[in-house]
Design goal:
This protein has 81 residues and is mainly beta. It is 10% helix and 31% strand. A hairpin with a 2-residue loop joins strand 1 and strand 2.
């Protein structure tokens, strides 16, 4: 499941070129963010979201991230590639 709202800094998220949806250490979807913003949803104030496009031909699809992150420790991870 990909979540819409993240509790991360807007400045840091804005530097992301890709957003990977990971399930059981495997990349199941890749998004190219076009714009990050603080959400208007009253239930998630202070969190951010993005608009963008899904990259259905990404080289990352189906790849394991287990060797990069080990046991998946949390909902938000950063890596500079």
């Amino acid at each position: 499941m990909t979540r819409k709202y993240w509790k991360i800094k807007l400045e840091r998220a804005s530097k992301a070129t890709h957003v990977l949806a990971i399930v059981n250490s495997e990349v199941v979807a890749v998004y190219i963010p076009e714009k990050w913003k603080y959400t208007d949803d009253s239930a998630h104030l202070g969190r951010i979201e993005f608009t963008g496009v899904e990259d259905t031909h990404s080289e990352y699809l189906g790849k394991s991230v287990k060797n990069i992150f080990g046991k998946y420790p949390g909902p938000t991870l950063y890596i500079n590639m």
